[in-house]
Amino acid sequence: MSSSLCSSLSLSSPSINPKSPIRFRSKSMLSTIRCAVGEVIAEPKAVSVAEPLLLNAVRGEKVERPPVWLMRQAGRYMKSYQLICEKYPSFRERSENVDLVVEISLQPWKVFKPDGVILFSDILTPLPGMNIPFDIVKGKGPVIYNPLRTAEDVDQVTEFVPEESVPYVGEALTILREEVKNDAAVLGFVGAPFTLASYVVEGGSSKHFSKIKKLAFSDPKVLHALLQKFTTSMAKYIKYQADNGAQAVQIFDSWATELSPVDFEEFSLPYLKQIVDTVKATHPNLPLILYASGSGGLLERLSLTSVDVVSLDWTVDMAEGRKRLGADIAVQGNVDPGVLFGSKEFITNRILDTVRKAGNSKHILNLGHGIVVGTPEENVAHFFEVAKGIRY
Ligand code: CP3
């Protein structure tokens, strides 16, 4: 229903922006919000229940509300996850044991019923399968024991064979599909070549990215060789995830935005495009979502990758992002994760503002980056309740 058809809203809550062309229903907050067209109350058209809402939305089909999930929705803000961490203190164990991966992936599903259930894993999980050992150390984050800096180091990187190195990923995705059925989309993910390279060259997380930039700007051939290896392996990994149950796959190029646009065009964009083209050649209907944090300066270039969805971070205004990306591409995002520390009323208003700016198709509601540790679970519950009560 377009905003012009639905300009008169009757609202019973003072917290809702009356200019909003969307309707919102919530057990706890509102009794009725209706959109009247003449004397007739416009009800959302029945949509196919055969496919998860998220997939319908990405394809631009008519949906009654935006699908919603949250980046890092499985993890440390949940008490139930912290209990598992006490019993299994190693991140690698938690993310490489099928039963634990399934249990942790389903924790937010059981409580919040998001429209996307993302596999509990990490972008670094494939590294040991490429002969790059790593760990995630509490208080320190990712650690690469032998950072790669030379042509000889890059030569040692082997091609990833997912079924041999990470069979637990395929098994977990298959179980997740059985558990979730078509009530939500099961989401896989991979790290983008430049972001993976930033970890393995820097040796872990980085503030200034000086080591990878030294390599890029003094010995680019070596970095290109590494990026090509990650590209080939990640394209294979996406196909493996799809073949084992993932219904959409998100590519995280979290740190690509550390690059100037001209360097993004050399060290990230061609590899992202190659991944998309390789995957689409065999899996043309698999939706691919691309996320880069702080991407305002790169939006138009992100859409050149031919991904289906660009996931916006919260520093981009949703309406402006939409305009810059064009109508063909779907958008995801982009509520500031910090909003989840705000009042319930603030959270509600920010969700509605985002949904209104995104328009009534091709939008997946999400945060602009992962949930922050310490986010109150009740605010996450409120986020989902509001989001799922929306009607276009
Ligand atoms: O979204 C989800 O719920 C799926 C789980 C997920 C994790 N990592 C689990 C995790 C996803 C999608 C990721 C992706 C990831 N990992 C990215 C891209 C997303 C982004 O944030 O930009 C990046 C850059 C990484 C690398 C990484 N792994 C970092 C920076 C950290 C945090 C380090 C720290 O301790 O603060 C990790 C570890 C990690 N991966 C955690 C979780 C839940 C926290 C450690 C733990 O739970 O013990």
From TrEMBL:
Name a single GO cellular component: chloroplast
Note the InterPro entries from the entry: UROD/MetE-like_sf, Uroporphyrinogen_deCO2ase_HemE, Uroporphyrinogen_deCOase
SUPFAM superfamilies per record: UROD/MetE-like
Biological or metabolic pathway of the protein: Porphyrin-containing compound metabolism; protoporphyrin-IX biosynthesis; coproporphyrinogen-III from 5-aminolevulinate: step 4/4
Signal peptide span: none
Highest taxon of source: Eukaryota
> What CDD domains does the database record attribute to this sequence?
URO-D
Entry keywords, A to Z: Chlorophyll biosynthesis, Decarboxylase, Lyase, Porphyrin biosynthesis
> Tell me, what is one Gene Ontology molecular-function annotation carried by this entry?
uroporphyrinogen decarboxylase activity
What does it catalyze?
Answer: uroporphyrinogen III + 4 H(+) = coproporphyrinogen III + 4 CO2
Which BP terms from GO are recorded? chlorophyll biosynthetic process; protoporphyrinogen IX biosynthetic process
Q: Where in the cell is it found?
A: Plastid, Chloroplast
- What's the EC number here? 4.1.1.37
Report domain Uroporphyrinogen decarboxylase (URO-D) positions.
Answer: 67-76, 187-203
**Coarse class of the protein's main subcellular location:** plastid
Function comment: Catalyzes the decarboxylation of four acetate groups of uroporphyrinogen-III to yield coproporphyrinogen-III.
State the family it belongs to: Belongs to the uroporphyrinogen decarboxylase family.
Q: How does it assemble?
A: Homodimer.
**This protein's name:** Uroporphyrinogen decarboxylase
